[in-house]
Amino acid sequence: MTESHHDVLIIGGGAAGLAMALEVAGQRSVTLLQPQPDARGASRWAQGGIAAVLSPSDDAEAHVADTLVAGDGLCDEAAVRFTVEQGPAAIEWLLSLGVPFTADTTPEADYPYHLTREGGHSARRVIHADDATGRAVIETLEQHVEHHPDIRIRHDLSALELIGDTAGHCRGAYCINESGRPHALLARDTVLATGGASGLYRHTTSPCPASGEGMMMAAELGAELMNLEFQQFHPTCLHDPEGSPFLISEAVRGEGGHLLGANGERFMLDVDSRAELAPRDIVARAIDAEMQHNGLDHVWLDVRHLGETALRHHFPTIHAHCASRGLDISQTPIPVVPAAHYSCGGIGTDLRGATTVPHLHAIGEVACTGLHGANRMASNSLLECLAFARGCAHHLARSTPPSTAPLLTPTSGEGPVDAALVGELRAAMRDIMSAQVAIVRDDPGLAAAESALSELNQQFVRDLGNTLPDADVSSLRHALRLARLTVVSARARRESRGLHHNRDCPLHAETPPAPSRIMASALGR
Where is the FAD-dependent oxidoreductase 2 FAD-binding domain (predicted)? Predict the structure, then answer.
């Protein structure tokens, strides 16, 4: 195993990781792991935009209030206020870097860039780059990162687990390169920006979703995980069983799109006074109920009344993509279905991105900051990435003395990898999670999921537990353990709140809610 020494090691090259690298570089040297940059990461697939208080007619208190309502009583108000307050400066920073946000040239505009409205927001406060905001942000950040003298990007390494020491500190990460050769990257400070856990489910809004690998890497080092039971399903993913996942942005409903049920009529009007602009948990459950009641495998999102000119102007990416699949959205409603989209739970952190493990930080979707509570409000995710990346960078601007305790050595295997079995076990895990731990749950289903996942894990240990270091095997090991912890967390919450809806305890708890907290030790060894 080769060994190298680094100052700040950032694992993950999405919006959070790239922003963090740019902000801390100049004060400290950075090594950024970004394997397969064109395929991995959810940030580049974000369509809607970034929520921030930018219009003179909007105010921070309204953004805070909307976020607290969407979070259904489980947000950390300090984290909400911190994030909202960072919004305008974060957008100005992106503008200074050259992100091509869509301009608003109409005479009545009170802000130079177009602001749209999405579910849960009481005002137009979502700035965007047409309907491909994530791609625009990522490509701009990558250009600056690639040319920064203090940042070294490694596309050839995949992290398998974190390096710990006998004092309980994080000391870097064990990785392998594309040839399977192991590398130990020792670092003064390590930052996880590895994304969420939507890959635990069969249907997602991202072609290459993370499966909670970073969460479990941190948990196995002793970090606390929070709110794992709150997995967000985006209400409107294009329903195309033969094609790859494709998100239909919430901004489509923000600009007037209507959801239609089996009878061709709007059903959200009877569910919530905000109709299609209710928070995502409410809309996703309503779609699921409509599908279950009428035996549908999807519902429809109707934008025909907006007209082709407006659709091409506001949603060029969606219009073109649907056309490439033979669907003219100006003439035909879009078939849509909820799909796993965002993890509101993750590694517990403070406002600096610090975890409970010294010298280990987490930012972006892998972290649970308290911003989202039981349900993330639309377009608060990229805002969180920027706010906490910049806050964490400020905290790490000066390095602290590293631990000198002896390192813990990783376990090593020697057997060959059965790639087909890896695929079979992952597919089985996703089927279990999608059937029993998705939008609507119940006690028997959660119990069945716990038992089935335990059996899958036993098979993994028996047949794959002693293989050579391998990225896919490592990912599956982490995913199985996180899936099991998610079920434990869901069974422990004896109420329905936000994204966690249990038929056997459908009401809010009478006592004030608290975030759920869990350690990897809950699974035993």
Answer: 7-382
| Backbone angle region of 505, left / alpha / beta, with phi > 0 → left and psi within -120 to 50 → alpha | beta
Long-range contacts made by residues 397-403, C-beta under 8 angstroms, separation at least 24? Answer: 397/24, 397/27, 397/28, 398/27, 399/7, 399/8, 399/28, 399/188, 399/189, 400/188, 400/189, 400/359, 402/169, 402/171, 402/188, 402/359, 403/165, 403/167, 403/169, 403/171, 403/358, 403/359
Give yes or no: residues 90 and 21 share one domain: yes
Pairing type for strands 30-33 and 170-177 reads: unpaired
Annotated catalytic, 280?
yes
Determine the pLDDT at residue 235: 93
Same domain, 268 and 382: no
Dmax of the chain from CA atoms? Answer: 68
Using a 10 angstrom Cβ sphere, with 0-12 exposed, 13-18 middle and 19 or more buried, the burial of residue 166 is exposed
CATH code of the domain containing 323: 3.90.700.10
pLDDT along the chain (525 residues), means of 10: 95 96 96 73 72 96 96 96 97 97 93 92 94 91 96 96 97 94 96 97 88 97 98 94 87 93 95 92 94 95 96 92 95 96 97 97 98 94 96 92 91 88 98 96 98 97 93 96 98 95 93 88 80
With respect to residue 409, please indicate whether it lies within any of the assigned structural domains: no
Backbone region of residue 326 per phi and psi (left: phi > 0; alpha: psi in -120 to 50; beta: other values): left
Among residues 44, 124, 125, 280, which one is catalytic?
280
Q: Say how many domains are in the chain.
A: 3
What's the token pair of residue 24?
A: 């801390």
Task: Give the pairing type, strands 30-33 and 151-154.
Answer: parallel
Whole-number pLDDT of residue 41: 62
- What is the phi/psi pair of residue 450, to 5°? -60, -45
CB 471 within 8 A of CB 194: no
Q: pTM of this prediction?
A: 0.94
User: Looking up tokens 């590398």, which residue turns up?
Assistant: 183
CB 70 within 8 A of CB 48: no
Residue 464 belongs to what domain range?
Answer: 419-506+519-523
